[in-house]
Amino acid sequence: MLSFWQSLAMASISGLLSGALITYFFNKKLDRHQRIMEVRKQIYTNIQEELAGFFDTTPKNIREKSGEKLLHSFRQIQLWASEDVVRQFNKFLYAFNFQIKLYNKITTK
User: Fold this and answer.
1) Which keywords does the record carry (predicted)?
2) pTM above 0.85, yes or no
3) CB under 8 Å to 89, separation ≥6 — which residues?
């Protein structure tokens, strides 16, 4: 039979070990979430800068390069963003593509 002090030591050691494991896994998950959020922030910042290349004052070659960069960012969004963001970005690209085609029809006439 264990004495009071031995049982207290066993309970303390098992509590410390379980607490350490829980803390380790929680910190690991939190660190992963933080890295994902940093990647998302970088991608969203890049998209904002790439959309700036589509203003009327930019030359056509810069618009084409911005379009290529935007599609590259879209592929990154598919990897890192949530489903809602991907869905909304699909809608945006569809509307944006329609707007570009309409603009090209108007300017070529």
Assistant:
1) Membrane, Transmembrane, Transmembrane helix
2) no
3) 74, 77, 81
